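hey team, just a heads up i'm posting the complex here instead of the shared drive bc the drive is being weird again. everything in one block, sequence lines first with there labels, then the predicted structure for the whole assembly after. its two chains so it's a bit long, scroll down
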Amino acid sequence: MAGPRGEYRKTAERRTQILDAALEVFSKNGYTASSVNEIARVVGISQTGVLHHFTGGKMALLRAVLERRDAAARELLGDKQGRDFLRAMVEVSRTQRAQRGVVQLYTILAAEATDPDHPAHAYFTERFQVIADAVTRAYEQVRSDGGLREGVDPRRAALSSLASIEGLQLLWLDGLDVDIAEDSARLISSFLIEPI
Amino acid sequence: MAGPRGEYRKTAERRTQILDAALEVFSKNGYTASSVNEIARVVGISQTGVLHHFTGGKMALLRAVLERRDAAARELLGDKQGRDFLRAMVEVSRTQRAQRGVVQLYTILAAEATDPDHPAHAYFTERFQVIADAVTRAYEQVRSDGGLREGVDPRRAALSSLASIEGLQLLWLDGLDVDIAEDSARLISSFLIEPI
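-- predicted structure starts here --
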């Protein structure tokens, strides 16, 4: 008999299936042209079944897909500090080279969400603030360790690194000859005495 | 009596009025929520009147607004070369600090257009290629003049500058403490022996 623990596991598995399908559908069609109905079809359940797990509908699914991506990045970053943190940032970009669909989805949503009325606006502004602060701390740590080039301000270096990562993703998606991991590594290294 | 020349001037004026209205409406509501009808209302003409000048409808209006923005940038860049070209790029960013609506519109459309099926996809990929090539030539010129730092590759510097400008716009729109002109100038200067 499936006890509460079994039920919980089943729910988690179903949520994972739904998010895999949402990512597949969003990446293939883009967010606007995707429907909860199509995502349900990929999972092989009804639309009501999807909405049972994600009551907020399509936007809730998108948010969950992006949060899962953030969780994967957080796993790579762990509690790393200083140079190790900066190296892990590049590692995150490296894994994203194999996930064009997610990067595109993220890029479109981040741009749409610059509109203060967009439902994901608070999510993105908060997310950028949190990341910018974490990267600033990493450069400060490098400075404490004597590894920062003279005249480099940790906050400006952090914002420049973050802007570069966002911009490289856009240029990469549009077919320019950039490498979202190696070009980020080059910029980050330009702030350091020893390249990462 | 209005001869052909008078007619031509009248048409040009009407097109300018329509584009001013389109920019106003797009910037206020975002592209998706805007309608040709509302743009027509702002001009004080009928929807048919707008479509007479822009047969491609809303997407044609957006494209024309963006092309007008590009034309303004081209005017600042002129036939400048080397350091002067790089300085003019920063000047373009400086003028954009006063045009949040246009920058937001551009950012959203550039992201949406990463989708190969998007009607503006060719426009953006081509545009990025043209700009990347022009910036590369500027850094090559600086190198010829002996002003490039040792070990800096003009192509990588150009793509890094372009990525940075795109990324800074996104962070700026989301309220981060960046200056789209001064932070670009700092990055560009990092490739040069003398800051611009």
